[in-house]
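Re: that chain you flagged

S.,

Sorry for the slow reply, it's been a week of failed gels. I finally had a moment to sit down with the sequence you sent. For the record, here it is as I used it:
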Amino acid sequence: MNLSEEELKRYNRQMMMDGWGEETQQKLKNSTVFIAGAGGLGSPVSIYLTVAGIGNLRICDFDSPDWTNLNRQILHDHTRIGTNKAESAKITLNRLNPSVNVEAFTGKITEETVDELVGDADLIIDCMDNFPTRYLLNETAIRKGIPLIYGSIWGMDGMVSFIDSPETPCLKCLFPEAPPSETFPVVGATPGVIGSLQALEAIKYLTGIGSNLRGYLLVWNGMKNEFRRYRVPKDPECPICGNNKG
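Prediction finished late last night. Pasting the structure tokens below so you have them in one place:
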């Protein structure tokens, strides 16, 4: 379906960028993105992809917001406490841009469900807070041959990487062992920064404009407001993408 007159007006300012125009905006409209998690990272990711005109968003979260989420999970407010986060996200995103098709999935991401949940998405955005699920998403991205955009936060710090195996190291190469699960501190602006960077990585990939963090881990120190970029090598012994994978 071609861009409507309303959409041409809505996206006018981004279409002014070099190499963008109607053809590139149509690429975004024809794209499908799977967002794993509708919490702190999933909020800015889904909001900025929605207002950018990504045509189809598949957003998954089995949880519901509570009061401790509201300092950062800007998809939700106090009237949505007890509502499933994916369903709450759909309400918010539909209000922001009704021309975007938002599908809400309320089940858990498991080994049995992950492939079906991701479906025909062009890429996966990892907005989770636990590594077992992150590893499942990593394996699915490799099986389906699509990129995975990793993001994580802690306090005023965060990390982002663009994973596109076999060209880049996979998530298991970056983090061979899962860190211990914990309830961690976080200031709401931190996922705002990292989630926005994840959304930008997605937009650059889908439009073909700019370059992605392929093979790099971008680390942000919010206390000092410093960014550092580290090249990460592939692990030839990685059990997921290495020479001896199972």
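What I noticed first: The beta strands are 32-36, 56-60, 101-105, 123-126, 148-154, 157-163, 216-221, 226-231.

Talk soon,
D.
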